[in-house]
Amino acid sequence: MGPTVITTTDDSATPVLGQLLELTLAGREPDQKVHLTAEGVRLQWLGEGALEVTPPPGQDAGLDLIVSAGVHGCELVPITLLDRLIRAIGHGEIRPRARLLLLFCNPPAMRQGVRRIGQDLNRLFCGKHAGDASDEARRAAQLEAWVAGFFRDPTRRRWHYDLHSAMRASKLPQFAVCPWMPDREASAESLLRLRQAAVDAVLLQQKPSATFSAHTATRHAAEAFTLEMAEAPDGTWPQCLDDFLQAARQWIEVSPPEQTQLSRPLRAFRLAREIIKRSEAFVLRLPADIENFTLLPPGMLLAEDEGGVRWVAEEPDAHILFPLADVAIGERAGLIVVPRD
Q1: 65 phi and psi, to 5 degrees?
Q2: Radius of gyration over alpha carbons of the chain, in Å?
Q3: How many beta carbons lie within 10 A of that of residue 21, not counting itself?
């Protein structure tokens, strides 16, 4: 079976810039780069997969918000979520009071419905693309340039949510990864915002990385998270995805969240160890359908590599996250995480 390819529906009632996903998948440049909605919201096409949105005069609440998706082209749920937000803005159903930068990050991979064509785009930020002539490196540089232009005013609040899908079921359906930041931690307000968006857990990174959210957090001091959205198996649409869309609308409109009773607190985890693929002899010894955040019994064999290298569950209360054998040599093939004290 070939890759799943994104399809879009024709919607002539939506302004062409509100159909950013359709433009991106077609590789088409719009004839008009700027559109004003009836409410005075300004949409500006910056380049392939990139849209800047400006609130009407006098309605800007001082927030610069980036929402991105499609860093991995096969992750259809986050791409669909961002498309729904963009179309709602184009229709006037969502009325922004934040400045927005909305990004479909990896158009070539999206068009083919694959995770990546060459390098993993989400390992090329924070300047890691320097000296690299690959298409992915050029795209990372372009995304960084758009972000720098967007975050030009240091007096404004800065948020970034990079939407992903782990492409497997999870014991905790939606979770976030908070990048390591020098001399600061995620604020209590930003963590509460995640819980109100139906996020169940957060992994707090403890060392630098080269992801897109790490770039905006470390280089631009944004409140930035990688959000792993729930899967939609068999065509079903989990309620938590609608809850996220409702929260995202509140972010965009800079409106207070609805006063709902949160069912449980946000669970926090930290990284204990990385499983690194060192050679082509690497074998992941976990079931192919193992769920993220599965509890690992002590002594369980997780992976093996050449030279007798073995990864075994050692930490009390250890859980597995992002198990994936099909990665490049030197990249992580899984994370062992434990609850944060």
Answers
A1: -120, 125
A2: 20
A3: 23
